[in-house]
Amino acid sequence: MNEVLDKIGYTGYYLFTLATLWVRYILMAGAAYLFIWIIYKEKLKHKIIQKRLPEKDKIFHELKYSAITLMIFAASGILVLLMKQSGMTLIYDKVEDYGVPYMIFSIIAIIFLHDTYFYWTHRLMHHPILFKRMHLVHHKSTNPSPWAAFSFHPYEAVVEAGIVPLVILFLPIHTVALVIFFFYSNFLNVLGHLSFELFPKGFIENKFLRLHNSTTHHNMHHKYFNCNYGLYFNIWDRIMGTNHERYFDTFREVTHREPEHSSDGTLDGSPEIQGV
């Protein structure tokens, strides 16, 4: 790492990190948008949660603020690097230092820690004093697209970026484990903002699977604002009583819809598509 820094410097490392974030964002959000919103849109119309998709100007808003967020996330990468160089973190590079079982545990641990961190910081940002200053930008997308995954006000982006610098202070974690966590987090974030429910009908009927959030869960948060604060899991919302009272019914309604067919036998989904 020191040899790389000697060649490219911190500016080069920042730009490399930013480019990596953009590639990941475009691959995940872009693939979701391309395949679900464009290529298979007609076949999946009946799975649109709010029965309509947002206008194009909302998507531009999401892209604009996501670009700002990625710059802040890249800066947090520099912070993590500086912390590691100063010996402040418990990041390690050799798997044999802790073994494979611990590495798997650390991935699970950071996911659960992030879910807890997200729930409580998210609820805090819904406080009237903070909402307009920090979180309203994200809630401009009352019916989000995959591009909304990182559509944050800069203040919120700083909070969102805070999980890794905090966790690496007390949790030994391998660099590869961090990369796996980032991809998992990005994937679930894009899925949560998809606006199409792709989870199967019986998902919430299983007592274990229902502890994981669906796309409907987060979509309802964007629609109603005052419920469904969780990120990956439906644990804190259940404990704190913040699930929307109609979450499970809404999920069932969406997943039990059948695609409509026109008189000529072709697929004709009923939801309205706006500006896409």
Please give a structural write-up:
This protein has 276 residues and is mainly α. It has ten helices and four strands, in the order H-E-H-E-H-H-H-H-E-H-H-H-H-E. The protein has one domain (2-196). Helix 1 runs parallel beside helix 7 (175-192). The protein starts with a helix and ends with a strand. The model is unreliable at 262-267 (pLDDT under 50). The chain crosses the membrane at residues 12-40, 61-82, 102-120, 163-184.
Figure out the total of helices. Answer: 10
Number of domains: 1
Could you tell me the radius of gyration in angstroms? Answer: 20 Å
Distance between the termini: 44 Å
Instruction: Give the tally of β-strands.
Output: 4
Helix content: 55-70%
Element string (H = helix, E = strand): HEHEHHHHEHHHHE
**Mean of residue pLDDT?**
93
**Major β-sheet strand ordering:** 1-4
| Proportion in β-strands | under 5%
Give the overall shape.
globular
Structural class of the secondary structure composition? mainly alpha
Point out poorly predicted stretches: 262-267
Please identify the oligomeric state.
single chain
Largest sheet: 2 strands, parallel
Protein name: Sterol desaturase family protein
Transmembrane segments: 12-40, 61-82, 102-120, 163-184
Keywords: Membrane, Transmembrane, Transmembrane helix
Region (Disordered): 257-276
Question: What's the quick description here?
Answer:
The protein is mostly helical and 276 residues long.
Secondary structure elements and their pairing?
Blueprint: H1 2-39, E1 52-53, H2 56-85, E2 91-92, H3 100-125, H4 128-139, H5 154-161, H6 163-167, E3 173-174, H7 175-192, H8 215-224, H9 236-240, H10 247-255, E4 272-273
Parallel strand pairs: 1-4, 2-3
Keywords: Membrane, Transmembrane, Transmembrane helix
GO biological process, one term: lipid biosynthetic process
Subcellular location: Membrane
